[in-house]
Design goal:
A six-stranded mixed sheet has the order 9-8-10-13-12-11. Strands 2-1-5-6-7 form a five-stranded parallel sheet, sandwiched between helices. The longest helix has 17 residues. The chain folds into two domains: 136 residues, Rossmann fold; 181 residues, 2-Layer Sandwich (Dihydrodipicolinate Reductase, domain 2). 33% of the residues lie in helices and 23% in strands. The protein is of the alpha/beta class.
Length: 329
């Protein structure tokens, strides 16, 4: 496979290369692609050094798959150009997620819907991916009625500038601000931009993307997204109300049997998911599973995952693996 990584010099692009190396995709030729200011730089991969090329050169090379993590504007302009030469684009931005004719894919949940005709495939938002990984098997069995979500999101979701802001504040150094307020020793109830309904774009992604991935919008969703000074991954407090009754033990068992999910749930031994332990891992970790004492058919869960891995790079590459293994590219 001739594979291009578009946005190879960025934070997610770097993790994509790590995951590509770990998962040993059948790569015959690797194209590392970035903006013009990065063209000519070299990036190591699997013991070799690769020179960064520009987008026009990458399109001309006609890769089989292009893994995009270069921002929405770049995706809107360039993904169709790659698709026009026969490349299958897997895009990590929000550019194509809610387009009716583009599929929004978490392979473990709806990978089976992909076909060879899907030339631009959208990767969901990081906070959505980890949440639906835990919610999808429960929805199939008990039928969701309502989701109430509070997220506690890593600064890495914002990018290198946010990591630098936190480091500067930790060291008492003045520098550029990725956020409107300090993030060190703080929590900002503000992820992405505010919309006319007073929710942020991040909060509404959780609503719209979840409905699209699960293939129905018959259940309600409301979300609050919070940025915290953490590097390892995103955490989510999720209250799920179902149409059908359940036993908590059944939910633990069902999640334990779900591919890509690891249950860490033992209050007696202080066992529960935390971003410090999720960092660098591909699984979604679920714990603090307990019945909502205010509602018979509702359960509370704590869901944690590395937002740069399963929330971005890993899910993208898992889509590529699915396409390759099913001969769809």
């Amino acid at each position: 496979m001739k594979i291009a990584v578009v946005g190879a010099t960025g934070m997610v692009g770097h993790v994509m290369l790590e995951v590509l190396a770990e998962r040993q995709l059948p790569i015959s030729e690797l194209l590392l692609v970035a903006s013009e200011r990065s063209v000519g730089k070299t990036i190591p991969f699997n013991g070799k050094s690769y020179t960064v090329i520009g987008l026009e050169a990458a399109v001309a090379a006609q890769p089989d798959i292009a893994l995009f993590s270069a921002g929405g504007a770049t995706s809107l302009e360039w993904a169709p150009k790659f698709a026009a030469v026969g490349t299958t684009v897997i895009d990590n931005s929000s550019a194509w997620r809610m387009e009716a004719d583009k599929k929004l894919i978490v392979p473990e949940i709806n990978g089976h819907t992909l076909t060879a005709e899907d030339k631009i495939i959208a990767n969901p938002n990081c906070s959505t991916i980890q949440m639906v990984m835990a919610i999808a098997p429960l929805h199939r069995k008990y039928q969701l009625k309502r989701l109430i979500i509070s997220t506690y999101q890593s600064i890495t979701g914002t990018g290198v500038s946010a990591v630098q802001q936190l480091e500067n504040e930790y060291q008492g150094v003045e520098g550029a601000m990725a956020y409107p307020y300090p993030i060190h020793r703080n929590a900002l109830p503000h992820c992405d931009v505010f919309l006319e309904n007073d929710y942020t774009k991040e909060e509404m992604k959780l609503v719209h993307e979840t409905h699209k991935i699960l293939g129905e919008n018959t259940f309600g969703i409301t979300a609050t997204a919070i940025r915290i000074p953490v590097v390892g991954g995103h955490s989510e407090c999720v209250n799920a109300e179902f149409e059908k009754p359940f036993e908590v033990s059944e939910i633990r068992q069902l999640l334990s049997e779900t591919e890509g999910v690891i249950v860490q749930d033992n209050p007696q031994t202080n066992t529960y998911p935390m971003p410090i332990y999720a960092q660098g891992k591909d699984a979604v970790f679920v714990g603090r599973i307990r019945r909502d004492t205010s509602h018979q058919n509702a359960v509370n869960m704590w869901i944690v995952a590395d937002n740069l891995r399963k929330g971005a790079a890993t899910n993208t590459i898992q889509i590529a693996q699915y396409l390759i293994s099913n001969q769809l590219v």
